[in-house]
From TrEMBL:
Active site positions, chain numbering: 83, 297
One Pfam family this sequence matches: TAXi_C
Keyword Nucleotidyltransferase found: no
GO process terms (BP): proteolysis
Limits of the Peptidase A1 domain: 65-428
Superkingdom of the source species: Eukaryota
Protein name per the record: Peptidase A1 domain-containing protein
One Gene Ontology term of the molecular function aspect: aspartic-type endopeptidase activity
Keywords: Aspartyl protease, Glycoprotein, Hydrolase, Protease
């Protein structure tokens, strides 16, 4: 049939035009199918970096989730903090090397032949940075200059660029945009310098996952050794417990305190040992300024609640632990500037007593925080023969943060799926160490 159409189209202009139209139509279908097909899934081990932060620093994290990969041509090893609360991925850049030796905490753009700086008048700099909290600017070389600042008072400063990111033996992604930051400020610089940069994973157009075009990604953090895995792409695993999904909240109009590209869900209530707390629904929804959104953030360690909700939870947890735990009677001690419900636990005690569980209730899903995860031992804090443990929920108001933030401490042993295609987050209680074994992910 094909040869018949071709031979006749040579003598019939109408058939020739029809054939060309059909050919172009089917070619377009093939091209679309190629571009719309999901990228090959990639699996990475998630490693844990424990930071020895002074306990009096506000909004500091003691644990970060680290992804290791290679960037550039030839490839340079980098380690990046997994952060679903940020958009732009960035690397600490330096155009020199120490003693001519590679430094795994620094990316050298001069040693990569595929590195390309981005001009400040390019479409990438002008159009794709609209959700940056601080708009980019032009530097003296007319390159796109970005300044990033974070809630823990850290910041980074540098130029936008593109390079090849290597995601395994068969995954080379060329032209991925990131920040090449030559100026890094952190209140805990010695510890933060152990990583090369940050992997931004929110819904912004320049986030790592958005540029890669993955319809979804997932991660799982073990509660035993805090190791885990990151899955870019669709898991399609039959052994995984069915996920409960909660929709992402989206507000299209700009509001001063609402992050439109964050993973925002609707917090419906909080339970302590199954008891639903008397929290007014009005304080759980964003107000007319956008304050009060609930964000799922892997770059934050603990969970922070707005003052009125935190106080209700604090009061109930204190009541249910009366006679079980000894309260730390020190009004001047507030862990990380936001956690003021702390306890004294004897140093020789190997196990904590049975603790009340805390459940975060979302639309269609629930995150249960139980066992030792409800408390957190403050590093290096000793009172007599006692260690100090604090409730692992903090007061956002004490930090000046106008939002509820669900940190990764409470996501341990929870399969977290971020479904970008259907605008939802899936949750399921799993043993993340076993899930890592199932995927054959070593550390």
């Amino acid at each position: 049939m094909k040869s018949y159409i071709i031979s006749n189209s040579k003598s019939n202009p109408f058939l020739k035009t029809l054939y060309l139209q059909n050919f172009l139509f089917f070619l377009l279908i093939q091209i679309r199918s190629c571009f719309s097909s999901s990228p090959t899934p990639f699996i990475f081990p998630l490693k844990t970096q424990i930071l020895r932060s002074p306990s009096n620093l506000q909004f500091q994290h003691n644990v970060s989730l680290i992804v290791s990969l290679t960037v550039g041509t030839p490839p340079q090893n980098v380690s990046m903090v997994l952060d679903t609360g940020s958009e732009l991925s960035w690397l600490h850049c330096n155009q020199t090397t120490r003693d001519n030796q590679p430094d795994p905490t620094i990316f050298n753009p001069n040693q990569s032949t595929s590195y390309k700086p981005i001009p400040c008048f390019s479409p990438t700099c002008v159009n794709k940075t609209q959700d940056f909290p601080i708009p980019p600017s032009c530097d003296s070389d007319n390159l796109c200059h970005a300044t990033l600042s974070y809630a823990d008072a850290s910041s980074s400063d540098g130029n936008l660029a593109s390079d090849t990111f290597h995601l395994g033996s068969s995954g080379n992604i060329s032209g991925l945009v990131f920040g090449c930051m030559d100026s890094i400020f952190s209140s805990n610089a010695d510890e933060e310098s152990k990583t090369t940069g940050l992997m931004g994973m929110n819904r912004g157009s320049l986030s790592f996952v958005s540029q890669m075009g993955f319809p979804k990604f997932s991660y799982c953090i073990s509660g035993s050794d805090l190791s885990g895995l990151l899955l870019l792409g669709d898991s399609n695993v039959t052994w995984l417990t069915p996920l409960n999904y909660t929709p992402l909240v989206q507000i299209s109009r700009p509001l001063p305190y609402f992050d439109r590209v964050a993973y925002t869900v609707q917090l419906q209530g909080i339970k302590v040992s199954g008891k639903l707390l008397p929290i007014p629904k009005s304080v759980l929804v964003p107000d007319h300024t956008g304050a009060g959104q609930t964000m799922v953030d892997s770059g934050t360690q603990f969970t922070f609640l707005l003052g009125p909700v935190y106080n209700i939870l604090r009061r109930e947890f204190l009541n249910q632990t009366a006679g079980v735990l000894r309260v730390l009677e020190d009004p001047n001690f507030v862990f990380q500037g936001a956690m003021d419900l702390c306890y004294r636990v004897p140093l020789g005690k190997t196990r904590l007593p049975n603790l009340p569980s805390v459940s975060l209730v979302f639309t269609g899903a629930e995150m249960v925080v139980s066992g030792d995860r409800v408390l957190y031992r403050v590093p290096g804090e000793i009172r007599g023969n006692d260690s100090v443990w604090c409730m692992s929920f903090g007061n956002s108001d004490l930090l000046g943060v106008e939002a509820y933030v669900i940190g990764h401490h409470h996501q341990q042993n929870v399969w977290m799926e971020f479904d970008l295609e259907r605008s939802r987050i899936g949750l399921a209680q799993v043993r993340c160490d076993l899930a890592r074994q199932r995927f054959g992910v070593g550390l």
